[in-house]
Design a protein that fits this description.
Blueprint (H helix, E strand, L loop, with lengths): L2 H18 L5 H5 L5 E3 L4 E2 L3 E3 L3 E4 L4 E2 L4 E3 L3 E4 L4 E2 L4 E3 L19 E4 L4 E2 L4 E3 L4 E3 L4 E2 L5 E3 L1 E4 L4 E4 L2 E3 L4 E2 L4 E3 L3 E2 L4 E2 L4 E2 L8 E5 L2 E6 L18
Parallel strand pairs: 1-4, 2-5, 3-6, 4-7, 5-8, 6-9, 7-10, 8-11, 9-12, 10-13, 11-14, 12-15, 13-18, 14-19, 15-20, 18-21, 19-22, 20-23, 22-24
Antiparallel strand pairs: 16-17, 24-25
Amino acid sequence: MTGKRFHRHLRTLLCAIAMIVPRRLRPRVLGLVPGFDVHPTSSIGFSFVCPSKTLFLGQGAVIGHLNVCKGLERMELGAHSRIGNLNWITGYPRRPGDPVFAAYPARIPELVLEEHAAITRSHYVDCTDSVRVGAFGTIGGLHTAILTHSVTLATGRQACRPIRIGSYSLVGTNSVLLGGSVLPACSALGAMSMLRDAHATPYRLYAGNPAQAVRDLDPSAAWFHRRTGTEAES
């Protein structure tokens, strides 16, 4: 067994052990994995959390129950960020000589939640390329699909692009976000919408299929001025 394979198996074993030890010990067990930096005040439920290279859980970060986080290289949860229950977070790792995404050498299979950002519950997050949620941004409701990769019909090959969700933004329930899309800071995506474009104007409600700006939002709204978490993160 090569050294690289040994370390991969050791990482998987420690991540599996972390699922079954008492909750207060899980940060300590995950902290034994090379490349993992887990704050002792973070909390991990009965979930399989096993990125292939780097895990960072900041102060007070929370991962709930029955999440699967695998296939991506890097996960970063800033201070007091939160992942709820029943989320499937996956990716396609970079491998030398793998032809599938060879045309995208700069892609990073990662999930980054900045401070107080949240993913609620029962969502699917594809991190074949980077997915970033800004500070206090929230993927709310249920059953949203975030898809950084897709098939390009013209070439018959896979393509991927990152997705950005801005600070203090809110993604409504049962939405779809496609590779290359951007939801600006201090904005909202209406329920059951499909975001495919990189929008730039804040304080707008984007909705529809494809999502477009449909009305302005009040910059003084409490959502945009939070300094702590919110019930929407539960």
